[in-house]
C-alpha cells in the first residue's frame, strides 16, 4: 500500500500519544454509538511492527475499551505481537486478499496469498477475530474462477466462528490520485483496463462493479452468513 506522500522514503507517524488522545476524545463524545477505528487505510498495520511497535501499543490501549472495535488491516504475515498474547475480542485482524496470480503481479514485495491465508488461519485457531477483505476487486480474464477458488481455499480448515466479517469492494481512485499514480507508474498492469470517471471517482464503471459484487456476494454466502458480509464503497 502507498500513502502517496511526497517522499521517496517510507513515512512512519510515531506520535502515538496524539492518536490515542484523539481516539479517547472521540469515544467520550460517542458513548451511545458503536465505534470501529480502522488502521491500514493508506498503510499496512503490521508490516513494520518489529520497528514501530504500533500494534502492540494499540492493543494495550483498546484492551481498555471492550465496546469499541479496532481493525488492523494488513497484507503482512508479521503476527508475533498478536500470537504472544491472549486474543482481544474487540480487535479484528483483517487481511487484504486477491487471487494468487493477481497478487503475484500487483502486490509488489508483499507475502504471497498462500502465506497470508496460513497466517490468518493461525490467528483464528489461536482465538483472534479475523476479517477477510476482498478489496479492491480486480477485473481480469477468468476472474470468476479465480475468486471462487480463492474463497474456497480460505474457508477450508478455518475456525469459522472467528471470522468476524467479510467485505468486498470495487477498485476506485479519487480522480487526482489516479492522475498522480498513473503518471508515476504508466506501465503498471493495474491501470491497463479502460476506466471511467464519474463524480470525481475513477473506476471500472457501474456495470462491472455490480457484476463483480453480485458474484462475490453469492460465492461468500456458500460459506458464511449474510450478516457477516458487507460491501465497502469507500
Features:
234 residues; alpha/beta; pyruvate-formate lyase- activating enzyme; 6-stranded parallel beta sheet; 3-stranded antiparallel beta sheet; 9 helices; 9 strands
Descriptive report:
The chain is α/β, with parallel strands linked by helices and 234 residues long. It has a domain at 78-231: pyruvate-formate lyase- activating enzyme (Alpha-Beta Horseshoe). The protein is 38% helix and 20% strand. The protein has helices at 16-29, 49-52, 54-62, 80-83, 100-106, 113-125, 143-155, 175-184, 206-220, and strands spanning 35-39, 68-74, 91-96, 130-137, 163-170, 172-174, 196-198, 201-203, 229-231. The strands form 2 sheets. It has a 6-stranded parallel β-sheet, with helices on one face. A hairpin with a 2-residue loop joins β7 (196-198) and β8 (201-203). α7 (143-155) runs parallel beside α9 (206-220).
The rough form would be described as globular
Strand order of the largest sheet: 1-2-3-4-5-9
Helix tally?
9
Taking pLDDT < 50 over at least 5 consecutive residues as the criterion, the unreliable ranges are none
So, CATH architecture of the domain at 78-231?
A: Alpha-Beta Horseshoe
Order of helices and strands: HEHHEHEHHEHEEHEEHE
Main structural class:
alpha/beta
Name of the CATH first level of the domain at 78-231: Alpha Beta
As a whole number of angstroms, the C-alpha radius of gyration is: 18 Å
Amino acid at each position: 500500500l502507498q500513502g502517496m506522500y511526497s517522499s521517496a522514503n517510507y513515512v512512519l507517524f510515531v506520535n502515538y500519544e496524539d492518536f490515542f488522545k484523539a481516539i479517547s476524545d472521540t469515544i467520550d463524545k460517542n458513548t451511545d454509538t458503536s465505534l470501529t477505528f480502522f488502521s491500514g487505510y493508506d498503510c499496512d498495520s503490521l508490516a513494520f511492527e518489529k520497528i514501530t511497535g504500533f500494534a502492540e501499543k494499540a492493543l494495550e490501549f483498546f484492551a481498555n475499551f471492550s465496546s469499541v472495535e479496532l481493525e488492523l488491516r494488513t497484507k503482512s504475515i508479521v503476527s508475533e505481537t498478536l500470537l504472544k498474547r491472549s486474543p482481544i475480542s474487540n480487535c479484528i485482524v483483517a487481511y487484504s486478499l486477491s487471487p494468487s496470480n493477481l497478487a503475484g503481479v500487483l502486490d509488489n514485495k508483499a507475502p504471497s496469498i498462500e502465506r497470508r491465508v496460513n497466517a490468518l488461519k493461525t490467528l483464528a485457531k489461536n482465538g483472534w477475530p479475523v476479517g477477510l477483505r476482498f478489496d479492491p476487486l480486480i477485473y481480469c480474464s477468468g476472474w470468476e474462477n479465480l475468486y471462487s477458488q480463492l474463497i474456497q481455499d480460505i474457508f477450508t480448515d478455518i475456525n469459522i466462528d472467528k471470522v468476524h466479517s467479510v467485505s468486498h469492494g470495487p477498485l476506485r481512485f479519487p480522480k487526482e490520485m489516479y492522475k498522480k499514480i498513473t503518471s508515476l507508474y504508466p506501465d503498471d498492469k493495474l491501470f491497463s483496463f479502460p476506466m471511467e470517471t464519474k463524480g470525481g471517482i475513477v473506476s471500472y464503471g457501474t456495470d462491472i462493479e455490480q457484476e463483480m459484487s453480485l458474484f462475490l456476494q453469492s460465492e461468500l454466502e456458500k460459506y458464511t452468513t449474510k450478516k457477516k458480509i458487507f460491501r465497502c464503497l469507500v
